[in-house]
Fold these 2 entries.
Entry 1:
Amino acid sequence: MKYKKTPGSIVFDVVNTTLLIALAVVTLYPYLYVISASLSDPVELYRSSKFILLPKGFNLLSYKIVFKNPMLFQAYFNTITYVVLGTAINMIMNIFSAYTLSKKFLPGSKVIMKLIVFTMFFSGGMIPTFILVFKLGMIDTLWAMVLPNAVSAMNIIIMRTFFMGIDPAVEESASIDGANDITILFRIVLPLATPVIAVITLFYAVRHWNSFFDALLYLRSRTKSPLQLVLRDILISNDKSMTTGIYDNAQAVSENVKYALIVVSTLPILFLYPYLQKYFVKGIMVGSIK
């Protein structure tokens, strides 16, 4: 059945569509600007207006400078290792902790949850954490990048709330059929919790991908440096030692390299996000509201 739109509904649709288009433009333009700027000729970009939609004189100089660094590909490998291993540890600890604490019959579950929430407001701080990592012999090792932040209190709370929202009758039925707790978790609960698992996995993966300060604190060998630390070194060396061998305006080249660094460091996450986007809103809303 077709309904005839009233003048008020037509005005609402027009205004709503206009606002959504404006929001999309405001959201996408920074990405378009950075990509266009990174592909532009440094001098032309430096002399042009700040508003650009397409590259100003196509040039790959900035990417040549970035990829010329011999440590870049090693840093990519290190970062991927930290992301994969760290996220796997995060999710294992998060899932088992949240599932256990979601059971109301667990003795002391309320006390444990209060202690977990307490850590969100009060922590040991940077220096005590560094001393602990040092005493455990993890300085300049892979484990220093993945174990100190192996679990997040907020993510435990989100996933626990999601698990508590699953109908207990589903687990009871599986238990009557002879399934044990591990089987129920992996065959019943986790498939139902796909949205919140996908969202929290993205949270942990992005955190490991952007890990910069942990590397400064715990790593000493350049061969173990993550991508963000190597990109920082490229940026610093570019600012300090950029010569005028190709362009007269070294500052223009330096600015151009900064845009290329942004693209190199963010593109992998941008490619990953669309595959998890359909779970994002559902996972957050269901996982955080009881």
Entry 2:
Amino acid sequence: MTSPRSALATLLVAPLLALAACGSDDSSSSSSSTATPAAAANACAKDQLAVKTPGTLTVGTDKPAFPPYFEDNKPENGKGFESAVAYAIAAKLGFSKDQVKWTIVPFNSSYAPGPKSFDFDVNQISITPPRAKRVDFSTPYYTAPQAVVALKKSPAAKATTLAALADAKLGVQVGTTSLDAVTNTIKPKSQPQVFNDSNDTVRALKDGRVDAIVTDLPTAFYITAAQVPSATITGQFDAPGGDDWGALLQKGSKLTACVNQALGKLKSSGELQQITDRWMGGQAGAPKLQ
């Protein structure tokens, strides 16, 4: 039989045990909630990054690599807009320049579905809904308009509107947003000639097999300055779907959020704008085609 004193003690101890139990739960819950942000931050620490090769950041781009995105066809030298952007992202992720490895990735292969040989790819790749179904994109690091580059002797060189290009024989690289821009915005009377890569496209213009080609505006400036001096920029125009360029990653990559975080820091600090001004600042002045 339990004594009255024993019963009273039991009644007093029970609530205390209950309070202690509640206190333990609250402490555990508080500890868990404070650990979550720290865990999220640590996910982008260099030693936690899901890279292809430990201690190395593998970056892809096409070959040849043209100015103003890359200089001297050497992405590894850090010169040129996209080379500088890639190394800036790498630095924010904790990689030094000698820990960045470049690999060749043909443009059309970059956004094909399936495993990738790189951690991210930079190659003037426009972010589009169809591509985003197959790969991941970072937030944009540049927005580019489209441009028409025509031989100076061609009537297309004198066009002041998109409608005036309807009769022109146009060339464009396959798989690019420039092809979409020709089809949906210029709407030429004849099908544009489509080429496998930028070299073939430029060569067709140089040889006079097409009256004009369509590409992004920065590339248009390089073509007319260095590759086809007999051509001129007819004008620029906005393409449907936009021309935001992003770093491309494998679909579902654990690195995507960290690349976005790095780009966010580059934007907020003004470093990305400084890189853009240095390498892309001269890309202006082309008339607008409506």
